[in-house]
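Hi there, hope your week has been kind to you so far. For a while now I've been wondering how a particular protein folds. I'm sending you its amino acid sequence along with the C-alpha cells. Could you read through the record and tell me how the C-alpha cells relate to the sequence? Take your time with it, there's no hurry, and the full record follows here.
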Amino acid sequence: MTREVIYSVRGPKNMCEMTYEEVAEELKHTDLVIFEVSSIEEHGPHMPLCADTIQGAEVSRRMVLKLGEEGIRAVAGPTIPFGICLQLMDFPGSITVSPATLEALLKDVCNSLIRQGFRKLVLLVSHVQNLGVAYNVVQEISQQPDVRIMALNWIPLFRKHRSEIVKSKQIDGHAGEGETARVLAACPELVMLERAQAYHPEAQERLEFDEPFHAGGGVFDPPREMREETPVGNVGDPSLATAETGEKCYDLIVGWCCEVVKRHFKLQGL
C-alpha cells in the first residue's frame, strides 16, 4: 500500500488549517467567523461519509471569498463533523451523537470563539437533523452582550430553485444529483460515480406544507430507519451529477448566505 494523495483542498484556509498567529492576525481585521456543523453518515455507495462536512466547509470557504471581494473580511471557522443521524445507523460507518451532546459541543465551540474575540458568529447547518439543536444554541448564545449569532439553513432556497439547476425531473434528495454535484465540485477525487445507483421512491400526494421543517414545511416526522425510504442510501439519480451543476448550486447557496449575513449584521462592503 502506497501513501498517495487522497484528495486536495482549495483555499482559503479555515481556522483549523491556520497557525495561532494567523488567527491572531485575522482578529485584528474582523470579528466575523463562519463555521459549520455537519455529520458523518452514509451518502450512498458512491460518496464518502463526510459528504455533508465537505459541502459545509466549501460553503464557508466560498463565503469568505465572496465577502472578501466586497471588502468584508471574515474567517472560515472550524468544521464540526459530528451530528445527529439516528436514522442512518444501519449503514456501516455512520456515527451519531445525542442532541444533548451536540448542543453542549456547539455551545462550547461558540464560547471559545467568543473568548478569542469573535463577536459575529454564523453557524452553517449542512446536515438538517442538526437544525433543532442549532436553534437552541443560537437562542442561548445570542443573550450574551455584544455578541451576534445566526444559524443558516439554505435547504428551502435550494429546493425552490432545484429544478432550474439539476437535470433530473424526478425526486432528488439525500445523496442524489444535487448533493453529489456539490461534492464533485469540491472534492471530485472522493466521488465514485461508477458505483452510483438511481433510486426513486414511489411519489406520494402531499398535503399543503406537509414537508419537514428544514424544507420549509410544517411537519417533523422522521423515519425510524433510512432504509425504509431507500435501501441503497440515496434518493434520486446521482449518476446525472456534474461538477458544473455543483458550481451552480454553490453560486446560489453562497450568494444567498452572504446577502443574509450582510443584511442581518449590517455589514458595508466596498
User: Anything to note?
Assistant: The mean pLDDT is 93. The longest helix spans residues 243-264. The longest strand covers residues 32-37. DSSP finds seven helices and four strands in the chain.
